[in-house]
Amino acid sequence: MTGLKKVGGAPQPPPVKLDAAAPPPPQPKVGMPNPDNDAFIGKVEKSPEFKKLDPATQKSADEAMRAATTPEARKNIADLVTSPGYGKLPPGSQDAALKALLKDPGNAEYAGSIKALVNNGGPYAELKSGSKGPAVKDMQQKLKDAGHDPGPIDGAFGPKTKAALEAYQKAQGLKVDGIAGPESLGELNHKRFSGLSEEAQKATLEKVANHPTDPAARETITNTALSPGFRQLDAKDQTKLLNVIGGQNVEISRPARDAMNNVLHDPKFEKGTPAEQKAMLEKFLADEPGRQGVLAASPGQLDATRKKYTLHGPTEVKDFQFKDKKIDALKYEVEIDGKKTPVYVPKNPDPKLKNHSIDEVAKGIAALPQASRDLVKQVNVEPIQNSEDPFWAKKYKTPGFHSYMTAGEAGIVNIYPDTNPPGSQDNLDVSLIHETGHILSQQKWGGDDDPRWKPWQDAMKADGVSASDYAKKAQGEDFSETLKLYQMVKGKKPQEDEMRALMPERFKIIDQLLAGK
Which terminus of the chain, N or C, has less C-beta within 10 A? Predict the structure, then answer.
């Protein structure tokens, strides 16, 4: 059921616009001879940091510089592969960093973000008992500043220094081994990228690469990934959080990113311990701030896929039984690809109530994806408001709840009137998809209390994010809102990939259901 609380007399949410995916820049063939490239790359290959790279990484760096389409792009990549942090990244993270720069090679500011992130690992030495020198002395001073006494600040790693380091590691939630590797040193230097797992490094670089022209987005993603609390999250939650805030879609990622920025600038987070930050990030994932109330459509979103249709009728039907009232009706048929869907409207509608016209309903049916349209057996444009609204208002804890549409196992969609004019054609289009979710789920799994819902319940728990606030009302609404999102992004890149990454288990189930499995 699609229902909306009235706010200011407007029963529908404001439309939003999907970001259009920018086409990738053309890339020349790798290895094409170019004297200027050869001279430039030759200089890069002589740098001390480049010489430290293994042969395979050197080859990848060379190919990336040759694939660059502008001198600025070559310089961006050269700066990256000759920076001290690049050689310390795992191979997968190195590849992700190169791909990030090739994705938009002309943006120096963006390239600077990638380079700064890669180098945000602090000293890369491994200090342990018996180590001596300036790096040990620097570490001792920072341990002392952090409140852990390492003994004399003399550059000699002895038992007292080890004990101070272990105490620091324990306090920060790090592995307690008395060895100062990239993770511990990165934490001491407030530079934490090297302490992340390879999976988290790759994911961070990939999400930053989604926003080559949006410095605010890059900053939010980077600051989240570099926070001490982020590293304390388990790997699954790290991935989930990056997926939520790192995408290009406006349904979930952009508002979530704004909400995350508020968390990052909260004094409680800024001054919090790693454990306190972790708790705030976990709460962020649980609360999902920034979600839309009801998943809305952008203007004309389904126009491109709307099928041609023929409207037949009307013919008069005496005493037709609508959901809550029996009155004379007019029967129309919307024919699409040879299939006719009957639509019943009141012959003499109440002038005080407003509802969609037969033409709007026909256009909405024509906008349904084939799999959803096949589920609809009949549409009733109801003469009165839903008599069950008080029940749903109580169940969903939404005073003034008004049903926009309902549907069930029989495949009948009911569209209800209101004293206000109905919403836009775009909202009608996607709301019909929502209702086909109720038809499909009830045909497969029955009502919300049926044990056959368990696979979907497990998928909801595994995915851990929702399409909208309304999806949290009940598992049936979660299915319908997720199906709506599925159909809204299907075939659109990168939105579909991002949503599949956010809701892999539920999208997998919908794939199977729509394939008839």
Answer: C
Does residue 421 have a cis peptide bond before it, meaning omega lies within 30 degrees of 0?
no
| Residues 397, 409: Cα–Cα separation, whole Å | 25
Residues written for the chain: 517
Q: Where are the alpha helices (DSSP H) in 68-189?
A: 71-81, 91-103, 108-118, 134-145, 159-172, 182-188
The one-letter code for the residue type at 108 is A
User: How does DSSP classify residue 178?
Assistant: S
Residue 491's alpha-carbon distances to 363, 495, 504, in angstroms, are 21, 8, 16
Token pair for 239: 């991935």
Torsion of CA 260, 264, 266, 267, to 10 degrees: 170
CA gap 276, 162 in Å, rounded: 26
| CB of 347 closer than 8 Å to CB of 313 | no
Omega of the bond leading into 314 within 30 degrees of 0 (cis): yes
DSSP codes joined into one string, 416-444: --BSSPP--HHHHHHHHHHHHHHHHHHHH
Q: How far is CA 249 from the centre of its chain?
A: 7
Place of tokens 């059921």: 1
* Residue 267 phi, psi dihedral angles, 5° rounding: -55, -30
Q: Which residues on adjacent β-strands are paired with residue 361?
A: none
Spatial CA neighbour of 156 closest among 185, 136, 180, 127: 136
Side chain identity, residue 468: S
- Is residue 232 within 8 A of residue 278, CB to CB? The reply is yes
Residues 127-163, buried b or exposed e (16+ Cβ, 10 A)?
bbeebeeebbbbbbebbeeeebebbeeebbbbeebbb
Amino acid type, 47: S
Which residues, in sequence order, are CB contacts of 200 under 8 Å at separation 6+? 225, 235, 238, 239, 242
- The continuous run of DSSP H or E covering 47 comes out as none
**Angle (nearest 5°) at CA 342 between 368 and 325:** 110
Looking only at the bridges linking them, the beta strands covering 412-415 and 2-5 are unpaired
Q: Could you report the average pLDDT of every consecutive run of 10 residues in the chain (517 residues)?
A: 40 34 40 64 88 90 87 85 79 84 72 74 68 84 90 94 94 86 71 74 85 87 89 90 88 88 93 91 90 82 91 96 96 96 97 96 96 96 95 89 94 96 92 96 93 96 90 93 92 87 94 86
pLDDT of residue 506: 96
Strands of 339-346's sheet, edge to edge?
2-5, 401-407, 412-415, 378-381, 339-346, 326-336, 310-321
Task: Output b/e per residue, 371-405; b: 16+ Cβ within 10 A.
Answer: bbbbbbeebbbbbbebeebeebbeebebeebbbbb
Torsion over CA: 110, 225, 20, 250 (sign): negative
Task: Encode 460-495: b = buried (16+ Cβ within 10 Å), e = exposed.
Answer: beebbbbbbebbbbebbbbbbbbbbbbbbbeebebb
